[in-house]
Amino acid sequence: MNLKDVKNLARERMKGYCRVCKECNGVACAGEVPGMGGCGSGESFKRNYESLRNIKLVLKTIHDAKDPDTSVEIFKTKIDLPLITAPVTGSSINMGGYLTEQEYSDAAVMGSIKAGTIAMTGDSANPDFYIAGLNSIKKANGKGIAIIKPRENSKIIENIKKAEESGALAVGIDIDGAGLITMALNGQPVGPKTLEELKELTSSTNLPFIIKGIMCVEDAVLAVEAGASAIVVSNHGGRVLNNCLAPSDVLEDIAKEVKGKVTILADGNVREGADILKYIALGADAVLCARPIIWGAYGGYDDGVKLIIDNFKNELKQAMILTGCKDIKSIDKNKIVNLNKGIFNI
Amino acid sequence: MNLKDVKNLARERMKGYCRVCKECNGVACAGEVPGMGGCGSGESFKRNYESLRNIKLVLKTIHDAKDPDTSVEIFKTKIDLPLITAPVTGSSINMGGYLTEQEYSDAAVMGSIKAGTIAMTGDSANPDFYIAGLNSIKKANGKGIAIIKPRENSKIIENIKKAEESGALAVGIDIDGAGLITMALNGQPVGPKTLEELKELTSSTNLPFIIKGIMCVEDAVLAVEAGASAIVVSNHGGRVLNNCLAPSDVLEDIAKEVKGKVTILADGNVREGADILKYIALGADAVLCARPIIWGAYGGYDDGVKLIIDNFKNELKQAMILTGCKDIKSIDKNKIVNLNKGIFNI
Amino acid sequence: MNLKDVKNLARERMKGYCRVCKECNGVACAGEVPGMGGCGSGESFKRNYESLRNIKLVLKTIHDAKDPDTSVEIFKTKIDLPLITAPVTGSSINMGGYLTEQEYSDAAVMGSIKAGTIAMTGDSANPDFYIAGLNSIKKANGKGIAIIKPRENSKIIENIKKAEESGALAVGIDIDGAGLITMALNGQPVGPKTLEELKELTSSTNLPFIIKGIMCVEDAVLAVEAGASAIVVSNHGGRVLNNCLAPSDVLEDIAKEVKGKVTILADGNVREGADILKYIALGADAVLCARPIIWGAYGGYDDGVKLIIDNFKNELKQAMILTGCKDIKSIDKNKIVNLNKGIFNI
Amino acid sequence: MNLKDVKNLARERMKGYCRVCKECNGVACAGEVPGMGGCGSGESFKRNYESLRNIKLVLKTIHDAKDPDTSVEIFKTKIDLPLITAPVTGSSINMGGYLTEQEYSDAAVMGSIKAGTIAMTGDSANPDFYIAGLNSIKKANGKGIAIIKPRENSKIIENIKKAEESGALAVGIDIDGAGLITMALNGQPVGPKTLEELKELTSSTNLPFIIKGIMCVEDAVLAVEAGASAIVVSNHGGRVLNNCLAPSDVLEDIAKEVKGKVTILADGNVREGADILKYIALGADAVLCARPIIWGAYGGYDDGVKLIIDNFKNELKQAMILTGCKDIKSIDKNKIVNLNKGIFNI
């Protein structure tokens, strides 16, 4: 089984839910929510692609970073590369249903561990899906992170307790799910949170608490004040609000403000190793990855996921060699040029 | 009847006059005047689309705007959302004629009221069309606004009187119709107006007077001086002058100058709730909407129009939740980033 | 015979030499020299299109310019609109040969006069073509301008004398033809000129002398010093040097330097009335037009040319009404926004 | 045999390995490594094309540069134009194998000499290919340059000695090959070099030493410090690292720092004579050319290569005439406008 096989199988098994395009740019699947696309005219997904593509690497060949170390420590856990599997649910509704929800979450969690990293599991209008994720984390002896939809606080706290029981490394909410149509359609209200509500959540557990869906400096500062251990700069893959900015448009300003005070994760169109390097250079501590992991799971279960992540690791290493970064903390702004900003000096 | 049905029916009934494209961007219908397109090579319509698309929303999730109020008061009338149906005529010449002129204007006026807002009715080379609009306003007990082409002042004043008789809330002229080819072809001259001529019009009635077709600061200032109650920043959907700027290119500068002195309406490519939010953030008090209303009317008469507007309301509410706006007056420049300007700070 | 018929006939008669595309943007015909395209990869033609399209008009509706005067005086001759037919030769080699060279130049010269303006005639590797142009000018009692290729000075002066004999209003050289492949292939060397050589040319005649093919400030200043009466800002329709700037990229800077000292003509992708307004706003006194005139001639001889020019006149008038310009000298920088420059204030 | 024939034959003989597209822009062949494309999604190749296309020439027609001299002296060798054939290997793996490796390198070396310039030969995972190149150089009595992959220093020095024995004019390494997948796959490790390692290489030979693959100012300065005679600003045709900047993005800054201290060669998407002029204007002393040379070799062996280079020479001369450059050292920044920088003054 190689990468090409996995992608071909995934394409076949996803029956058009995802076309596994040559360029995963949000064009073919625009509007497919449920499904794999961006919502509305798909402009947020497309901007995620476009903005990240406009960030260019500075090739560098004279240095001694011949065998870079790609590992990082996140939530006191060493992982082999700064990439964590993103929380994804809805195998039937979004991906075509070739895998059951449990099969999908097992593949994501186990494949990630096999590849030397960890996965987040998700929540959904169907509460069974959250349980499926916890089941996978339990099987992995707690090596996983449970992400809960921004439901009423009492419901979230209930779910946090279940995550603690499963031994999860960390918990959190994907507050960017506040506008998810599928949740509302199923009578399970979600919404934004106030600072006070967030404080109640972070103080309800001893686990590191993650707030996913931060897209402006003001919210990043509030997340820190609320006691979050980590934020995820994410617009939910362009699936909740059409026409918004990309994570790579806002990450640099956010990092300028909160770097060091909170773990910064970035999520959006990570499709190759160089994308990880770009997000780290913009200020992230690690990235999340969703769609390629789905291809891995659909194309080859946990081994498919491992293959996908191993490939990211190789590509990242190669990109680090060719930009002169001997380890992740050596990756800084000098390694990239942001053409989105229009002006550049090398 | 749902939105998809309405659009499909509209596409069928409009027989190619409008293709109801996935992206309504002015490409397929370029040059189709009469018809639904922009004039000439369609560049003004295309720029309207492009400029608005380049204005991005700032996703915000930590706040207490959980149930935003979308209502506003315009011309002392409370409407459920800051969207007014634009004046449109020519059901046969522009839309294919499945609806009679009277059916179209009834659908627009009644559907708008059913959805909690109001419609403007229009004027045309065929003077019967203006009467059709007034008929609809009468049926609605005056809940509507009559917009008159920029004919000779005496002719306009005559039409204003008729509008007063129909009980209309307000009247106005779409001065951007000054170059309409279809009017000239029918021997009904239209043209620009001097300040003095505008003063004569505004002082001829006690109704609020609207000047539609303001695209530069200088004209906005003159409109205020002429005694207008409202201006509409509009290039007539790109149908009168090829190659001109988009409303979203000029709105911010205009609002800087006249906001508060006059009601500012914006008109151009409003296709989803987020577009309303963008125009409000740039300085508008409300927007006009034309082509989607036509789809509603052609796809389902007044109920189709209501469905279209209700959908805008839901989308706007969702966009307000995800940008943290508890009411319309909370929507300001911090909610958007204008990529047309090339530089941005979040 | 209407505009559509003329274009359709032209398309048919040009047998693919020109496709008379919906958008005349240099894409379909890239590399077709001989033919109607830009040379090489066609980038200069494409840039001409793109740069001009990025210049936008400021719609203005409150003013008294209800019946603008489009006329100007050029070379002491009043013309009905600031558009002169560009010098074009090679009916067989470039256009497919449906018209003989003499038929083409007659149509261009006579059609222009019928429409209230004048034409330039051209020169070519085949010296008969220059004579054909002079024949047309003679038939028109001298109402035309003879443009000569940048041959050796002695040869040019010989041709100037012939033009004088034909009674031409003015003469000149299209110095941008310095790199024409077709000339070199036929053993008729052309080339750039020094200041001294230009002085010899301007002082050899009492007629106004035009230098066509000025694309930088330095050359514009030299042209004035050489005694030219007029310059044409032109890159020869993108047909001599691939990858160069567009006339609309350089015109403003050139006008800043030499406006008033010399008549400034602009040449490049004039396809509708608004394009004339744009070039005037950037600093031109009038424009040249080539490809549409060819369509007119091929589609309807002199009457086709007249139809094309009359249409330009109507469109220009309309554009002047909608931008508030009562005459050509009222057209200034405030009427346009140049998006090529990236920043704008209305 | 003419240029068109050569390209058609090449297209046929390369059996899809290269489509010899109308525009060689990296789109059709994206990801084809091995093959002729850029690696990954091909973004680096595409950026090379796009960045260079955005650099425009300033057409100039009033001057005395009527018969420009295109020759330069590089490595104390006078060549007829500032273009050197780039090192390329892998006729079977990358080009389809119609030519044997020896046939390809003979065509490149001999064709270049026939056209008045010289070629670089390359190195590969298959060590025989390096020998093939040296064979060609030997046949040419040493008129060629041997470029070695960035292997271990001892291996490079061994190869330098062989190059000296073949009489090569100069030697070097293509350090941008540090990440070549094909090398790693064949167990022949390559990598970046430290300053000390480079010093060891430059001091191991009396031949001029070239470092190919410099893409930032810092590396350019280090190359000078290491004792290099020349650098090549190159991203290996976009074949080693996806998403990096183009040579034309970085050349100007590099030249500002090291011009005069080291010979600067530029490599990337040279497809016509004007491209040479652009790179020289940005600061290069000469350019390398790869893909068109391959078309020449595949379409017509050494005569095909000569035809390609002769055409470059003619086009360069033409571009120099039309920009007013009487010799290569007259080509400076005033001859171009870099639209990548967004602002321009002529």
From TrEMBL, chains A, B, C, D:
<feature type="binding site">
    <location>
        <position position="239"/>
    </location>
    <ligand>
        <name>glyoxylate</name>
    </ligand>
</feature>
<feature type="binding site">
    <location>
        <position position="212"/>
    </location>
    <ligand>
        <name>FMN</name>
    </ligand>
</feature>
<comment type="similarity">
    <text>Belongs to the FMN-dependent alpha-hydroxy acid dehydrogenase family.</text>
</comment>
<dbReference type="GO" id="GO:0016491">
    <property type="term" value="F:oxidoreductase activity"/>
</dbReference>
<keyword id="KW-0288">FMN</keyword>
<dbReference type="GO" id="GO:0010181">
    <property type="term" value="F:FMN binding"/>
</dbReference>
<protein>
    <recommendedName>
        <fullName>L-lactate oxidase</fullName>
    </recommendedName>
</protein>
<feature type="binding site">
    <location>
        <position position="236"/>
    </location>
    <ligand>
        <name>FMN</name>
    </ligand>
</feature>
<dbReference type="Pfam" id="PF01070">
    <property type="entry name" value="FMN_dh"/>
</dbReference>
<dbReference type="InterPro" id="IPR000262">
    <property type="entry name" value="FMN-dep_DH"/>
</dbReference>
<keyword id="KW-0285">Flavoprotein</keyword>
<keyword id="KW-0560">Oxidoreductase</keyword>
<feature type="binding site">
    <location>
        <begin position="267"/>
        <end position="271"/>
    </location>
    <ligand>
        <name>FMN</name>
    </ligand>
</feature>
<feature type="active site" description="Proton acceptor">
    <location>
        <position position="236"/>
    </location>
</feature>
<keyword id="KW-0413">Isomerase</keyword>
<feature type="binding site">
    <location>
        <position position="234"/>
    </location>
    <ligand>
        <name>FMN</name>
    </ligand>
</feature>
<dbReference type="InterPro" id="IPR037396">
    <property type="entry name" value="FMN_HAD"/>
</dbReference>
<dbReference type="InterPro" id="IPR012133">
    <property type="entry name" value="Alpha-hydoxy_acid_DH_FMN"/>
</dbReference>
<dbReference type="InterPro" id="IPR013785">
    <property type="entry name" value="Aldolase_TIM"/>
</dbReference>
<dbReference type="GO" id="GO:0016853">
    <property type="term" value="F:isomerase activity"/>
</dbReference>
<feature type="domain" description="FMN hydroxy acid dehydrogenase">
    <location>
        <begin position="37"/>
        <end position="341"/>
    </location>
</feature>
